Amino acid sequence: QVQLVESGGGLVQPGGSLRLSCAASRSIVSIYGMGWYRQAPGKQRELVARIISSGRTNYADSVKGRFTISRDSAKNTVYLQMSSLKAEDTAVYYCNAETPSRVYWGQGTQVTVSS
Question: Using one digit for the tens of pLDDT, what is the confidence trace for 23-42?
Fold first, then answer.
């Protein structure tokens, strides 16, 4: 089992930056993929960024060049560095972890971009 705890969300002005953290309850070395998803009110949950064990990453087109996902295996933590934030980035951001048996989700952290 893996428990995931997100943190770092909050209120930020357009153009600002935030860094989200996702702390796992056990080593992430053997976890194949970890990702960040988001869900805005009235919309479906969507992939924001994903990183696999080799370090390969992929991003939603809407965040390319603005967001960066990384993983620190020593800290069992995955990060999402968000820059040049826009109002449309407002959502609840969720972390997930893909294991052979199932996918685990965190409880989410709210990000609000507003002036």
Answer: 999 988 888 899 999 999 99
